[in-house]
Amino acid sequence: MSELRKDPVSGRWVIIAPERATRPADFQFQPPSARAGFCPFCEGNEDKTPPEIAAFRAGGSRANGPGWRVRAVPNKFPVLRVEASPDNRGVGTYDCMNGLGAHEIIVNNPRHCVSLSEMEPAEIEEALWMCRERLTDLKRDSRLTYGLLFQNVGAEAGSTLEHSHFQLIVLPVVPIAVERELDGAARFHGYRGRCLFCDLIRQELADCARIVDDEGNFVVFAPYASRFPFEMWILPKMHASHFEDMTRIQAEELSHVLRKALRSMETALRRPPYNLVVHTMPLNQGNVPHYHWHIEVLPRVIEVAGFEWGADFYINPVAPESAAAFMRGESGE
């Protein structure tokens, strides 16, 4: 029988409907073949991107040339521009402002790789550290409110260039999905005096049914009210509200945990397309006791259709307990 479950953070309901699928293995993909053609993100093609904003480089190498390990550049086709002025205004009943913000690309590696799972932990650590550096830098602009870090892996997940890279879009407003999380976490803390995410970590570790990995100072689990089959959340066990406050030691540890989690998913499902999203506190707010930054990994293994779009109410045919057990068994570690 199907079951309705409520996400305690956002308040969103989902339907867990395992009778709509036979077994987790039914969601395995055929491994994607590499796309042929020119890649502007590979080393040696630096002149095919906008001039770099920042890079981790070998000593003596020149900007916008070979010798880099991680490279941050403006998006060639940005959705927002930092040069704009906000000009917040009303148009009758409607609110409107200019396209103020930033849109950057962090190229994770000079060699052509599709997923972070193909990189060494030290390489992932540097990519994460560049993301932190760019968020910290853009935080200085008081007009900017929220920085969303994400990866689209695979064409079905929205990727137009397969070379592994993060995108960073910094907005003058807080996205509604994050607002829902912030509101839910604040209500819980106001009622119980504890961080909801810290409580979730303790409960998941005690239960173990949805744990994918428990390693050092990070935990990976399939959320109780998973929207999608094989959805994973990665959280630091120690309370922290801002991703950009991560230390270098934490980045090193996260690189191992993230690679292992992605390899578990990719082995279990034969490298599905997926989205990876970092949720963190707004840039213009200090540390808070009620919110906990985290990474969401969202495999694109089912179609989102009319019911989901119309109701913001997801149907997940794989129970998170089954998904976690399947990924634990197929981790290959």
Walk me through the structure.
- The protein is an alpha+beta fold.
- The protein has one domain (3-22, 39-329): HIT family, subunit A (2-Layer Sandwich).
- The protein has six helices and 15 strands.
- It has helices spanning 121-138, 176-192, 196-207, 248-269, 306-311, 320-329; strands spanning 3-6, 13-16, 54-57, 68-74, 89-91, 94-96, 102-107, 146-153, 165-171, 211-215, 218-221, 232-236, 274-279, 294-299, 314-316.
- The strands form three sheets. A ten-stranded antiparallel beta sheet has the order 3-4-7-9-8-13-14-12-11-10, sandwiched between helices.
- Helix 1 (121-138) packs across helix 4 (248-269) and helix 4 (248-269) crosses helix 6.
- The chain is globular, with a radius of gyration of 20 Å.
- The mean pLDDT is 91.
Summarize the structure in short.
By secondary structure, this protein is an alpha+beta fold. It has one domain (about 5-20, about 40-330): HIT-like (HIT family, subunit A), CATH 3.30.428.10.
Features:
single chain; 333 residues; alpha+beta; HIT family, subunit A; three-stranded mixed sheet; 6 helices
Strand-pairing-aware structural class: alpha+beta
Uncertain spans, ≥5 residues at pLDDT below 50? none
Q: What's the mean pLDDT score? A: 91
In total, how many domains does the architecture comprise?
A: 1
* CATH-scheme architecture: 2-Layer Sandwich
**Mass-distribution shape:** globular
Order of helices and strands: EEEEEEEHEEHHEEEHEEHEH
**With helices defined by DSSP (H or I, 4 residues minimum), what is the helix count?**
6
Tell me the radius of gyration.
20 Å
Described by strand count, sense and barrel closure, the largest sheet is: 10 strands, antiparallel
CATH superfamily: HIT-like
Q: Determine and state the CATH class.
A: Alpha Beta
Counting copies of identical and different chains, the oligomeric state is single chain
Please estimate the helix content: 25-40%
Query: What is the strand content?
Result: 15-25%
